[in-house]
Structure of Ribosomal RNA small subunit methyltransferase G:
Amino acid sequence: MVDITAAELSAAEKIFGDRLDLAKRYVEHLATSGTERGLIGPREVPRLWSRHVLNCAVIESEIPQESHVADVGSGAGLPGLCLAIARPDLELTLIEPLERRVIWLQEVVDDLGLDNVTVMRTRAELAVGHIEADVVTARAVSALTNLAGLTIPLLGGKGEVVAIKGRSAGEEIEKAAKTIRKLGGVQTTVVTVGDHLLEEPTTVVRIVVDKPQKKS
């Protein structure tokens, strides 16, 4: 079992509610097969709850009810699987190009019985036109100048990007501003999530997209 502190447990109970046992099982997957297969570094195991799972799960507060969420570069399911566990009302599509990660993700989805998750082995740019999400999430994929082009087109012209970022979020927005506007981003903000739950709140870049439809 992965140790969980009293503060982490309190936060996890608030976020996951009656699905806390599923979250615990997911963390066990991360700590065992996730590290064995190179999805998570062994040194991260003691910090799985605070640095990874809770850090990702708190962004559920930024996602509207019953949204279709596409998670780009899902990797170990961060944040995609965290959201699927915390919010059974959401429909999640996990987009991941690497086969070994896709196999692992599917194994975890099957074991946890998450019927609101689809795992797609593809690159984000190739998924455009095949899915149309209301919200696109990403964590530790790439700088915003590149990430905007990978995420915004999956919205089909309207919706939101909710990207987990670090302290350089403001700088990244400045550098990517032109690209974001060109792709239909009408508002880009930095939001801090989980202040009242986590020792280190999560920094999110939120891009509202509303691209005018081309006249035929």
